[in-house]
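Q: Convert this sequence to structure tokens.
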Amino acid sequence: MLAAAAGTVITKTRGENSWRGMEIIIRHAPEDTGLPVWIYTQYAHFDAMPAVEVGERVKMGQKLGPTGNSGQGKTPGVQSSKRRPAIHFAIWYSTRPQYVIVSNQLKVIPVDGWWMDPNALYRGKLPFDTAALKALPEAEKKVPIPVMLEDGTTVPAGSKVVWPYACEKR
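A:
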């Protein structure tokens, strides 16, 4: 998994009692993404604990760790054996940089925060919520997803955000 944008790691959890398993959350300032809001990206189900540390600044496209299958299944305390290795990638946004960590629930809550449709991150402009994106005219719904190739090249060049997986050029 790759960092979708430059930012600062704000949580890193083993998640033994979580469906999400090993996860990290990165906070991205407006200058990191080019958006007029603070973004929080969550990456979960790592196969191994990421080497990055809380407080560490990461670069866009920096390798965070291998995708995996960590996290509980439906039976408490038992890892899912049916879920394929995958990423759990979630995004929140806020106009304010402050956040709260609810440690007993392993949650980060951005102050005045809202869930962001991942397509909105790549679209790069308002609206950010799913319902408003669905209501857009068809011509405005097409969202090219910037990627980082395995050699570190971004497509298109100059992107401030990328898909959280490296891509292979064919």
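Residues 30 and 36 are 5 Å apart (CA to CA).
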